[in-house]
Structure prediction request, 86 residues.
Amino acid sequence: MASSDDVRTALQTAFAPTHLVVDDESGGCGAKFSVVVVSEKFAGVLLLARHRLVNDALKEQLKTIHALSIKAFTPAQWEAQQQQQK
Prediction:
């Protein structure tokens, strides 16, 4: 099974994120993850393509992950969302 550390390392390597959250929602068994990735590498990239990039970065981990929720933002989008939540 994939671990949170495996997922985090793969995403850090692929995207050099300014903000990254990896949450194992399966109670530690590594079957269901939720990720938030904030990276400049998403600038000018449509949402579906961003999800494909994340899936590609996690190709090995997805062999054992049952479900993956992805939120992928540019730093500007992330900042705007944080301002809305205040």
Q: What stands out?
A: The helical segments are 4-15, 47-57, 75-84.
